[in-house]
Amino acid sequence: MQLAGSSAIVVGGAGGLGEATVRRLHAAGAHVVIADLADDKGKQLESELGVRYMRTDATSEESVMAAIAAAESAGPLRLSVDAHGGPAGGGRLVAKDGSPLDLNDFTTTIENYLTAVFNVMRLTAAAMAKSEPIDGGRGVVINTASVAGYEGQIGQLPYAAAKGGVIAMTLVAARDLSPLGIRVVTIAPGTFLTPAYGMAAEDLEAYWGPQVPFPKRMGRPSEYGQLVVSIVENDYLNGEVIRLDGGIRFPPK
Q: Which of 53, 113, 150, 159 is catalytic?
């Protein structure tokens, strides 16, 4: 699939991984819509790049549909990239004081990191299904999991469950959408240097860098964006989860 002239939506496009993706897609000639809740950053990118920003709640059908409509106003939707974040609960399943992990923390994390991904995927895929195929293909859906979906650490149970769910949806969704010519691929990032950590870059690098086999550093958001473009351009990538992690495997804690 060619990016030039295609319409694309990036959910979480104002965040670290999302912004890098927006920049890559825009440079490749795609008509990009940033779907996010970060108004200041989204509007700044809109002004800088000439892309479209739409305030979007990934858990809301109405909100996502509005973002899709904005993308379709520039042409048929061919690409959806979901890299949004949100609140994530955590803690041991049973705390040292004997109290169980809070149910609301678990359900909120699942809502933000799994249900919202499903919501975006089903709505963007339905929009792609209406377009005319190009060489048999109608579009690509790219979701974001995490290596925590494979090796969740102590205290990460809600987040690991949500990301594991995204991983599990990948092949099934690809099979569901194959008759429509829509591919589904998931990226599972390792430790990436983004504002989501809320810590100084040098502190993060000092902690995580030595734990990565090679290269001994955190991932760069531009490397995520680069992989998105590679997935789009390689029509034989489908139904796969790609770890982008420098070979890191999370220890228990």
A: 159
